[in-house]
Each structure stands twice: as C-alpha cells, then as structure tokens.
Design goal:
Number of strands: 24
Shape: elongated
Largest sheet: 6 strands, mixed
Structural class: alpha+beta
Distance between the termini: 120 Å
Helix content: 10-25%
Radius of gyration: 45 Å
Strand content: 35-45%
Order of helices and strands: HEEEEEEEHHEEEEEHEEEEEEEEEEEE
C-alpha cells in the first residue's frame, strides 16, 4: 500500500520540481536593455520663398479661325466656261482675282441694247428740249400758257426715260461683270462645288473660302485669369495695340511658335461655362520667311496661348507644387518640423504661385507630397540647401 503511494507521488514531485526550475530561471535571467529611438524624420523637397517682381502669364487655349469667311455664290445664270488653276481645295487667290467665268454672250447683248436705249433716250430728251424752246417762243404773247403747251411734261418724261435707260445700262454692265466670279479679299479656298461646263443659276454656291490676311483665336478666361490680365470685360485695344500673346502647337512633329495680340474681350460672360472670351489676332499667318522651318498658323489648328498680364511687384513667389488644397502651404520650420499655413493667393499658374500674405521671404516651402501631414511632425530637407524659386527679373518683363 505504501509503495503504491510512493510510486504515485514520484511523478508529481518531478513535475513540481520542473516547474520550480523554470520559475527560478525566468526570475534570474538577465533583462535586455530597452532603447527608445526617436521617430525618423520624413525626407521632403523644399524651396525658399522669394520676393518677386514679375509679369503674370495667363495660360489658356483655343481654335484658330479665319476673320473673313464666306461662300462664293453665282449672281447670274449661265454655263461656266473658264476655271482658274487655283479653283481647288486649298487654292490661293488675290482680292478681285477671277476664279470662274460664266458665258457672257447674253449679257454682252443686253449691254449693247442698254447702250442703244440710252442713246435713244438722249435724242428724245434733246428733241423735247427743242420742242419746248420752240413752244416758248411761239407763246411769248399768250397770257399764262399751260405747261402742256410749253412742252414741260414732255421734257420731264424724256428726262425720266433717260434716267431709266441709264439705270438699265448700269445693271447690264454689272451683270456682265458678274460673269467674272471673284472675291473681294485675299484668301484660300476651303472647298469647291462647281466645275467647267456646269450650268449655274443665281444663288448657286460655287465654293467656300476664308481670308488669310488675319486669323483670330477665341480664348476662354476664368475669373482668376481675367484678374491676372488687369483689363475689364468689354476691353478694346487701341489700333495696332493689345496684350501680347504667344501661341504654340505641335505641327508636323515639331513645336511651333507664333506671336499675336489680344485685341478685345467679350462684353458678356458665357452663362453656361461662366467664362469670358478674349479674341487674339495674328496678322499674315500664312506668310513665312524663305528657307524657314516655320509652319503657317493654319485655320482650324488647336493652340496653347500664353497672354502677358499685369505686373506684380514685391510679392512672395513660390513654386505651384507648394500650394495645397484650400490655399494652404506646408512649411519646414527652423526646428525641422511641419507647419501648415493658410495663404492669400494673388495668382497661380502651372509654374509659379504669387502670394499676398501667409508666409515670408526666406521660409522653406515643401514642394513634395506628404502622406497624412500633421503639424509638428519631424521632417528633413532632401536638398543640401533649399533652392530659391527662380522668378523673372525686371529686364525680362514684357513691355
């Protein structure tokens, strides 16, 4: 009985001994040193805010369109007997240059008849004058002779008949001239819809054309962009003047540049888009220097426009990458911590932002993205020395 109790207690004693050994080892093991590291600062790109004197630039875009656009329409009926070599799509023509000629036999005959009627009317008028002179002499002694007896109505009728004949002659000359179809401006043909031998009537559209002496570009402006220009709604530039504008586009695989001027602003705001449109003009867009790689500013081309606006003096300039949503700016302060500022924006484009208040010159503006920004978080500038923002000098300002 006793031996059985001993056999049952031995495993229990071994288990208790093992537990005791484990407890003693845990209690006596050395504790590791706990090192509390400071959070690593986030590395950011910065630029130094600078005081700038700069001319604002408004960036927008639009389509090039011809100032003069019209259809070439026949004014008399007849068969086309001559066609100019330039009467093709893209053909060039000068003001008054004949592009089509309508058979003029009938109109030449009508002109001859009208000349004959004028000649006859002149004879009738001279005859009426002679008859009136004779009647006046014959009725010298008659008291208050009637106008009819003095041949006055006959003279009036002869005068009116001559005027009518002269009007008919003028119309006959005009119709004869209309057989030579031309346009009153220098330009290009967009498309043609008539050919040699075709019979056309008055009102028949023969071609569509546009002038090449000048093109214009309609440029939409937001309220912010309008303020940057410094001109009112309904602006009209003086003759030959206007705001300078650079137009750019990629044509034939190369970037092209043209210069023009903003000549006017609409007098009303578009109710659907809430923008006001400026009209820029470029003179002689198809005239290019010889041996030049420059392309013409073709009608229908989509161009980017940079308009020279008003000049700002002594404002704070920062990179536009530093302007955050809600007109806020992230600053790296002297302690290497993030500071979030609200600023007053005067103007902003894709490159620069000009501020009226909120930061001072010389402060480091963060221009890189920060995930979950919290004021006071530790930051470190990637730049060895923060670079100042490059702004235009007075010598680079447009006139």
């Amino acid at each position: 009985m006793l031996s059985r109790v001993k056999r049952a207690l031995i495993p229990l004693l071994v288990l208790l001994l093992g537990i005791g050994v484990v407890v003693v080892l845990n209690a006596t093991k050395p504790k590791p040193d706990i090192a509390i590291e400071a959070p690593r600062p986030i590395r950011v790109h910065t630029q130094i805010a600078a005081v700038a004197t700069n001319q604002l630039t408004v960036e927008t875009n639009g389509d090039v369109r011809a100032t003069l656009r019209s259809d070439m329409v026949a004014q008399v009926a007849g068969r086309i007997i001559e066609v100019s070599d330039e009467f093709v799509e893209g053909g060039r023509f000068l003001a008054g240059e004949t592009l089509l000629k309508i058979e003029d036999t009938d109109y030449q005959a009508a002109l001859n008849e009208a000349e004959a009627r004028v000649a006859a009317a002149k004879v009738d008028l001279e005859t009426a004058y002679a008859d009136a002179d004779v009647a006046r002499k014959q009725l010298v002694g008659v008291n208050q002779p009637s106008p009819l007896a003095l041949k006055k109505p006959q003279v009036t009728r002869a005068k009116l008949a001559l005027e009518a004949a002269q009007s008919g002659l003028s119309l006959a000359k005009t119709n004869l001239d209309r057989t030579n179809i031309a346009l009153p401006y220098t330009g290009r043909l967009r498309e043609t819809s008539a050919d040699l031998g075709e019979y056309v009537g008055p009102g028949k559209v023969l071609a569509s054309a546009f002038g090449t002496d000048r093109v214009e570009i309609r440029l939409p402006l937001t309220d912010n962009q309008l303020g940057a220009l410094g001109v009112p709604i309904g602006y009209r530039a003086p003759d030959g003047g206007g705001l300078a504008v650079d137009l750019t586009a990629k044509v034939a695989g190369a970037h092209q540049l043209w210069t023009g001027r903003v000549e006017r602003l609409d007098a009303a705001i578009d109710p659907e888009t809430r923008v006001v449109y400026a009209t820029a003009v470029v003179d002689k867009p198809y005239e290019l220097p010889e041996a030049s790689s420059q392309m013409p500013l073709a009608v229908g081309l989509f161009v980017e426009a940079a308009i020279a606006g008003r000049i700002l003096t002594d404002t704070i300039a920062i990179s536009s990458d530093g302007l955050r949503a809600g007109d806020r700016v992230f600053i790296l302060d002297a302690n290497g911590q993030l500071e979030i500022r609200s600023v007053e924006v005067i103007h902003s484009n894709t490159r620069e932002t000009f501020l009226a208040s909120g930061i001072a010159a010389g402060e480091a503006v963060i221009i890189s993205a920060i995930r979950n920004p919290i004021p006071g978080m530790a930051l470190e500038s990637i730049n060895a020395e923060s670079e100042a923002i490059i702004v235009a000098s007075d010598s680079n300002l447009a006139d």
